[in-house]
Specification:
Layout (H helix, E strand, L loop, with lengths): L9 H4 L10 E5 L3 H13 L4 E5 L3 H9 L1
Parallel strand pairs: 1-2
């Protein structure tokens, strides 16, 4: 059996946020992985601005609205 405690708290999953975070994160590709990564960055507050780039402008706009 592992010595690690079992917990469902999100505090144990993610390190504490530091005040010095990047101001912008750019993600190239608005497919399933890119849009999921962008969403995760926004939810976790990893940057002040998240930029999603893709060759298909309409797809990026649709993902941003979701």
């Amino acid at each position: 059996m592992s010595d690690l405690p079992l917990t469902t708290s999100s505090e144990s999953l993610y390190p504490p946020r530091r005040e010095s975070r990047p101001t912008k994160i750019a993600i190239i590709g608005a497919g399933a992985v890119g849009s999921t990564l962008a969403y995760a960055c926004v939810i976790r507050g990893l940057a002040r601005e998240v930029v999603l780039q893709d060759i298909n402008k309409q797809k990026v706009e649709a993902e941003a609205l979701d």
